[in-house]
């Protein structure tokens, strides 16, 4: 399977990205943070727009999460 998902380094400043992400959750309840994450996923998915790339991203994210769980 040819990957269409860009897994190469693509952020100029990871620290700045992380700070933006953390700041966007500041003073939100856990429920609001979950809603914010869902909104970010929908907005960025719409921006990407390619169902094959999105499908690949969802599969990779799930595999990563499942692999991090203790057996």
SSE layout:
Layout: H1 14-25, H2 30-48, H3 51-68
Low-pLDDT stretches: none
Mean pLDDT: 94
Structural class: mainly alpha
| Gyration radius over CA | 14 Å
Shape: globular
Q: Quick one: biggest sheet?
A: none
Distance between the termini: 28 Å
Number of helices: 3
Number of strands: 0
Chain oligomer state: single chain
- The ordered H/E elements are HHH
Percent helix: 55-70%
Strand content: under 5%
Explained architecture:
With 71 residues, the protein is mainly α. The protein has a domain at 31-71. It has helices spanning 14-25, 30-48, 51-68. It is globular. 0% of the residues are buried.
List keywords for this structure.
3 helices, globular, mainly alpha, 71 residues
Give a brief outline of the structure.
The chain starts with 13 loop residues before the first helix and ends with a helix.
């Amino acid at each position: 399977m040819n990957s269409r998902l860009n897994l190469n380094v693509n952020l100029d400043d990871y620290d700045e990205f992380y700070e933006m992400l953390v700041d966007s959750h500041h003073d939100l309840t856990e429920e609001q943070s979950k809603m914010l994450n869902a909104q970010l996923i929908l907005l960025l998915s719409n921006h990407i727009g390619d169902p094959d790339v999105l499908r690949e991203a969802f599969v990779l994210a799930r595999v990563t999460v499942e692999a991090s769980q203790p057996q």
